[in-house]
Amino acid sequence: MAEETIKTTCPYCGVGCGLILSRGRTGWEVGGDPDHPANKGRLCSKGAALMDTVRAEDAGAVRLLHPEVDGRRATWDEAVAATADRLRKTVEAHGPDAVAFYVSGQLLTEDYYVANKLLKGFIGSPHIDTNSRLCMASTVAGHKRAFGADAVPGNYEDLELADLVVLTGSNLAWCHPVLAQRLRAARRDRGTKVVVIDPRETATCDFADLHLKIRPGTDVALFNGLLAHLARTGALDAVYVARHVSGLEAALEAAEADAPDVAETCGLRRADLTLFYHWAATTPRTVTVFSQGVNQSSRGTDKVNAILNVHLATGRIGKPGASPFSVTGQPNAMGGREVGGLANQLAAHMNPDDPHDVDRLRRFWKAPALRGGQGLKAVDLFRAVRDGRIKALWIMATNPAVSLPESDLVREALALCPTVIVSDVVADTDTMRHAHIRLPAAAWGEKDGTVTNSERRISRQRAFRPLPGEARPDWRIMTDVARALGHGAAFPYKRPADIFREHAAVSAFENDGARAFDIGALAAIRPKAFETLAPVQWPAPKEAPAGTARMYGDGRFTHANGRGRMIAVRQTAPAERASLRYPLILNTGRYRDQWHTMTRTGLSARLSAHRPEPLVEVHPDDAGALTEGGLARVTSGLGSLLARVTMTEAQRPGEVFLPMHWSDTTAAAGAVGRLVAGHVDALSGQPESKHVPVRVEPWTPAWEGLLLCRAAPDLSALPYWVRRAAGPCLAYELAGDAAPDLDLAGLSPMEFTDPRHGVVRRAWMDGDRLEAVLFSGADRPVVARSWLVELFAAGALSAADRAVLLAGRAPEGSGVEDGGMVCSCHAVSREAITAAVAGGAVTTEDIGRRTRAGTGCGSCLPEIKDILRRAKPAVAA
Ligand code: SF4
What we know:
It is a single chain. By secondary structure, this protein is an alpha/beta fold. Helices cover 31% and strands 19% of the residues. A seven-stranded mixed β-sheet has the order 5-4-16-15-14-6-7, sandwiched between helices. It has a six-stranded mixed barrel with strand order 21-25-22-24-23-26. Iron/sulfur cluster binds at residues 10, 12-13, 15-17, 39, 43-44, 46-47, 176-178.
């Protein structure tokens, strides 16, 4: 029986699922909250494994537990004084513009609010930007152009009420899995048609009625073509447009100019395009879901407006089952947008370029230092650090040395910057390695406040664990620094509820409806009511305290004249094209079971088993000398990295894919940001992370190996290594040119060598306990990895295990499985599923009944179907 339960929210994607933490005899366990409107009890593999990551944090030396100044442990008083002192001296010597903050969609709204107020209002610099710049800045810009406010009109229920759901630039099955579950169920129950527009055949295509494998960067042509088709076929809502929308004529003229040969421009079959356009024209209840595939582009804002144009012209906005819908990547990207965390925003949807808004906020905050004008956006901000214009940089809850484009330039900038302050949960990240002041921050489970999900729903995140070591919440760290800078009167906060009240009050301050974000109904919330605050969708002004399910359904938009605006946009090419030197186009994105730079999900053995190494996915037509499972060097105009090759017809010929998750702490040189140039959208500043010209060449090392060990060794001499958590040990895939020369644990190894075949096998024992084991050879060693991991879990090796250890083979009949994890929710391996197929399972339901695989979040269903297809080609999955 659970003794205690606490409701909170998931810290990963923008779905913002509600969780229930229950404390039983064995500690805290996580489950989906059936009462939370975002997920109604569902979870995905990442959410379900949250306690794995918390326990792994506790077990390993992962957390930053104490403040440090210039490499020495410091007290909080010393660290706060040093931070304040360096910020003050920077301002005195170089002016406020020499100070910048780079923050994160991982912060809670209260943290974000204080960061924004401190920098813009009291230090007087406009240069605060957030990693949400990499995620949805183009949507923010597109929303503002079309609606007059950064507001998502619809909600999740619309995906269930729609008759047609168009997913464009969104691998919903992997990136927003619970929304994918809801859509999959709606399709099953009421026959919703699903169209996927994506250059790759992703897991989302598994439940698509039509997949448009579009040429990357041609989305504007596709949606302009649709607008022109709607006009030609009389499918526009002329009455709605006349009453509520401006700009139809110019937008249509631009669309028609792009329309002559959309199929050719987009690389699509004419029949597929015609079918899509026909469905879109004849289905009033249409929802268009869009995400990073649209946003991460040098033309991202135009792509967003091409989509919004179609919805404005048909009146399909803010109505049940009919709306455009942006899904955000991060848990609190939306909260950051509300407090003005982007360099081109002020708090509560105020505009830094509007002198009235600047004056309004200055009066509300009593902040004479607040200036108008926009700050530097992420890419430009780090260039300014590198150029010496910014001399003090405070980074919170993010890892820009990995996640930003031009990541070598970012690392150089951090190395050159006179003052780098990093607040984070994790002791070792690529970014933290450059910090002069290291501040231990509270993690999920320890912090308290609010987040806003993709459907504008504000939910509580609640602490259920004590703070470890000397970690503190971000809002408190910044409040203390603000006080040390002499601004105590403006930062009187004792608890998150104090900050939330002020945030709510500023949203309603002199707001006669001109600003969409208004949560004035919560401006007087008492701490007790804040504790029990139920999820609520903004706007929630005083007159509508229950919140607002949908916006703009009445056709009244936030622009001063109340009308929505169609924007004339034209198809233009991405910033760079393929060339003889770089003939392939690289797309980047997420894996199902990993999150961002893996500082949290990378700690879970279960999550790490799904894709243990970064794979460069290549179409067979582009194979050349590449081999399946071999290693390859991927090179762009900026840099290169090594990755393992997998051939797949899911890619279009001429295009390759790499994941975004690996860093220099989890791989030899894993950051894909090294390859990505800093081309940005002119309006939104969002980088083009999905269209990078590269070449991919085979890389043949002298040897490849597998190393399992209890503690991380120094592998800096190796050109290729990738680490993953494997429960009782760490697992490394290795490759090199010089012979492997690893000195581990100061112990003498048992050794088997076969010089003729270049085989080296070593095991390091401490008494009967296995400390490390290495298998290497000219080819990638074929060994029973799962069995070896089990040996680390055992306290002492048996004589039988010891006898066969260096053979790398599990003893006969041990029943170990080794083909990787397919279903992370129920820890079901490839072998178990293959065995079920061999035992007579012919459908995914059969597999689910026999193994439970695919009965959790459902994200693994495409892989299960693939196993079924390969095993029994004649059987329909
Ligand atoms: S879909 Fe998964 S990762 Fe996203 S919020 Fe829900 S449980 Fe977390």
